[in-house]
Amino acid sequence: MKNTIIVVVIIALIGLGIYVLTKTPSDNVSVIPGVIDLDENKNPEKPVEGEVVVDKTKTVVGTSVNGNNITAYHFGEGADEILFIGGIHGGYEWNTVLVAGELMNYLKTNPSVIPSNVKVTVIPVLNPDGLQKVVGTTTVSFSQAQVPSSKDVVVSGRFNANNVDLNRNFECDWQTSGTWQNKTVSGGSEVFSEPESQAIKSYLEKNKIVASVVWYSAAGGVFASSCHNGVSPETSTLTKTFAKASGYKAYESFDFYTITGDMVNWMAKNNIPAISVLLTNHTDTEWSKNQAGIDAILKHYTK
Questions:
Q1: Alpha-carbon distances, residue 173 vs 137, 184, 257 (angstroms)
Q2: Which of 99, 111, 119, 219 maximizes the CB count within 10 A of its CB?
């Protein structure tokens, strides 16, 4: 009898040992809810055709030339949608992608800042192919250390995989060739020729956007939008509200050089109050300034 009991105990101990050895670390570690997983490449989504609503927190609005998804993230469930966009110039303005990522984390961890009547939508990377050229990823999951020192490589990331400047491909004074600083760039074979600009056009046509903020770099200012119809009163208010809170200077228009096919001006043409926020340089997100501007915008649209 004693021997039988000993054998049973030994078998039980062996079984317990096997269980402990095969138990996964996640069984022992509490998973703490955190911010948005910024490393989506761990679980890459399959490219889609057209707009796909994944769930109430995420919509794939389209795909890039290379088939990379362009994703919109939603926060809040109000009827008034405010749209924030980063990365239209991909890896050349990679800090605009990171500031959009900071906004997503801010809203995830501070949902109370979103008014009940508002839904905030963030598209952090409008030009995923251009971002990938520079930092090797199509998402906000990268750091400044991944940015190459080669100026030519960084500049190449301004354009999509068709070598088109997406901010010259929209329907406001569109031309086949546009200007960037003192350079000639491609505006595409026709207006909205690029899948990335088509994705934004489709999304705005399907959704009621009350205001839009688009990040660029680098000039350090908040610029109103218009397309030969004057700056609307609401766009002017939006410009001044963000500028006053952030400390950036407010401008009624971008007059440094002639712009054709600009996305924000196209939004104005379609009666969407929209502003361009240009970060001061190509490396910093200036998050404290932008957070203040964002908070002021959310407060302005609180009903």
A1: 32, 15, 14
A2: 99
Q: What are phi and psi of 55, to 5 degrees?
A: -165, -170
> Which two three-digit tokens encode residue 154?
């960084």
| pLDDT tens digit sequence for 72-97 | 999 999 999 999 999 999 999 999 99
Q: What is the pTM of this model?
A: 0.85
CB 266 within 8 A of CB 172: yes
Pairwise CA distance, residues 106 & 141, whole Å: 16
Site of tokens 């000993």: 6
Torsion of CA 162, 165, 170, 176, to 10 degrees: -80
Q: What is the DSSP string of 84-112?
A: EE--TTGGGGHHHHHHHHHHHHHHHH-GG
pLDDT in tens, 208-217: 999 999 999 9
pLDDT of 190-224, one tens digit each? Answer: 999 999 999 999 999 999 999 999 999 999 999 99
Secondary structure (DSSP) of 157-181: TTS-TTSB-GGGSSSSS--SEEEET
Instruction: Report the C-alpha gap between 76 and 104 in whole angstroms.
Output: 12
Beta bridge partners of 217: 279
User: How many H-runs (helices) and E-runs (strands) does the chain carry?
Assistant: 9, 11
Helix (H, G, I), strand (E, B) or coil at 271: coil
Rounded-to-integer distance, Cα 99 and Cα 203, Å: 22
Q: Give the residue carrying structure tokens 């030339």.
A: 65
Q: How many angstroms separate the CA atoms of 15 and 21, rounded?
A: 10
Tokens coding 232: 């609307």
d(CA 258, CA 182): 10
Q: Which two tokens stand for residue 172?
A: 């406001």
Cα separation, 143 vs 135, whole angstroms: 8
Give the C-alpha separation, 121 to 75, whole Å: 6
Domains, the chain: 32-300 (3.40.630.10)
